[in-house]
Amino acid sequence: MRMxxxxxxxxxxxxxxxxxxxxxxxxxxxxxxxxxxxxTYIEYLAIxxxxxxxxxxNTVAEVQAIFDRAAVIDDITTISGKDLKVxxxxxxxxxxxxYQREIHIAGPAYLTLKYSGxxx
Length: 120
Known about the structure:
The chain contains two helices and three strands; from the N terminus they run H-H-E-E-E. The protein is of the alpha+beta class. It has one domain.
């Protein structure tokens, strides 16, 4: 019987404890920021839906009122009807909006998310 002999030290594969801790800290940071950023994106989508409903109005006041009613239903607190940019292109009403949200990261660090859009 012939046995295999190793020549030199065995090479270990895998993650060191420090590497595992660093990956864990990075994952927690991503989930912490993502957990605060996802609701702002969901609100952005709700604002887009409310703006689509609001373009049914014929005057600026009607558009703002329709948007404000939809904002109450969808719990939109970032912008209101008076923040909308209402214009006309031909015979179509176009409702535009832009705003920003800040997410506190740590100490003086903030993540600023800028959202904008308009109806078609």
